[in-house]
Amino acid sequence: MSNLPTTLPAWLALLESRHAETVINMGLDRVLAVKERLQLSFSCPVIMVAGTNGKGSTCAMLESVLLRAGYKVGLYIKPHFLDFNERARINGDLASDEVLVDAFNAVEAARGDTPLTYFEFTTLAIMKLLAGAGMDVVILEVGLGGRLDAVNIVDADVAIVTSVDIDHTDYLGDTREKIGFEKAGIFRAGKTAICSDPVPPQSLIDHAEAIGADLWLMGRDFNYSGDKQQWNYGGRSQRRNSLAYPSLRGANQILNATAVLAALEALKLELPVGAQEVRTGLVTVELPGRFQVLPGRPTVILDVAHNPHAASALNQNLGNMGFHPYTYAVFGSMHDKDIDGVIAAMSEHVDHWCLTNLPSPRAASASELAAKVQIVHARDVANSSERTINIFDDPAAAFANAMSRAGENDRIVVFGSFLTVAGVMAARKSSLH
């Protein structure tokens, strides 16, 4: 054991090298075995959040409101943009390298000869860290699907499914009904199960009823109403009026915020939260890369929209922004996404495409993306005269090109894979230093 890494970067490098050899094996047996050896359990309420889109926003709002209410809050959220530490937050602060290394050591000791993927290993480590940190409440974001995700080795007191749409079809199935069943796998008998998708798949409802979960559905058990200035929440036994809209921009954030208030209503005896804490928490919440508008000109928007559902929400948000003469898109994507659907959803607002390769074997090449954009342009003859398509080796180069061409009243939208947004964030960070 003495030759184990002593720093976080060295640990992550080791896990990545192992990960190349550990095939993604959909199943929880190995993770459960290591969980037992770690004696991993939580002595506080656990809120788990799954969904195709909106998971990160929902987790961030829950954390913000509960911190405002004075609770000690642990959060596991992913992926990260610049530092791995972003995945583990204790009372709103990133976990230190030291506590993460301690947690990695604990998992390695308990693992024995059980192989774990990068995601399984780091999930166990961060859960171990949060379980031992004396929290009042822990919020866990599901990675992929739900039923077979490593996070699902824990029984959540409240489980939220935000939205159900088509993504990760290789693993989860190619219909909303199949995917809904996978997401519903985080529900537990006798525990609160919340779905904020306005049109939930029947498979999710059926599974919740079959296992005896306490299912809360948008429009049936909780809902919202509002005007341009403010909104109201109505639940089973709790109303909250005159709320400010969440500071996270975008059309779907009100659905996410409503699910947050339903979760807080379900936990109101264990974790009471006052009206002012809800208001302040929603107004001050921050989450990088979710329709994040950077200060300065030209306007730069960062958004990790990487499936058609998220891209159409991003397109709608762009349409609500007011006039910009030209829009430049910095776009890179993983190969297994519905790239045609994403491009089609965004083509209405994009004049100039800056397409980028990404540092992952799973990424689509910039030239593949260009071919797909050209097909969309060919269909959309009316707008094609001034449009341009360029390809770049990395997101930093694509972004630099967009910045050099954009006028101060134009806008640049950086979207697609997390790696696209992270590449631009890193480039901006290094240029500021």
How would you summarize what this structure contains?
With 433 residues, this protein is of the alpha/beta class. It contains 15 helices and 17 strands.
Explain what the structure shows.
This protein is α/β, with parallel strands linked by helices. It has 2 domains: 8-284, Mur-like, catalytic domain (UDP-N-acetylmuramoyl-L-alanine:D-glutamate ligase, 3-Layer(aba) Sandwich); 292-432, Protein-Tyrosine Phosphatase, Chain A, CATH 3.90.190. Helix content is 39%, strand content 17%. The chain has helices at 8-19, 29-38, 55-68, 97-111, 118-131, 169-172, 176-183, 202-211, 253-266, 275-284, 308-319, 339-346, 366-379, 395-405, 418-432, and strands at 46-50, 73-76, 88-90, 93-94, 137-141, 158-161, 192-195, 214-217, 223-226, 231-234, 239-243, 292-294, 299-303, 327-332, 352-356, 388-392, 411-416. The strands form 3 sheets. Strands 4-3-2-5-1-6-7-8 form an 8-stranded mixed beta sheet, sandwiched between helices. A 6-stranded mixed beta sheet has the order 12-13-17-14-15-16, with helices on both faces. The longest helix has 15 residues, at 97-111. It is globular.
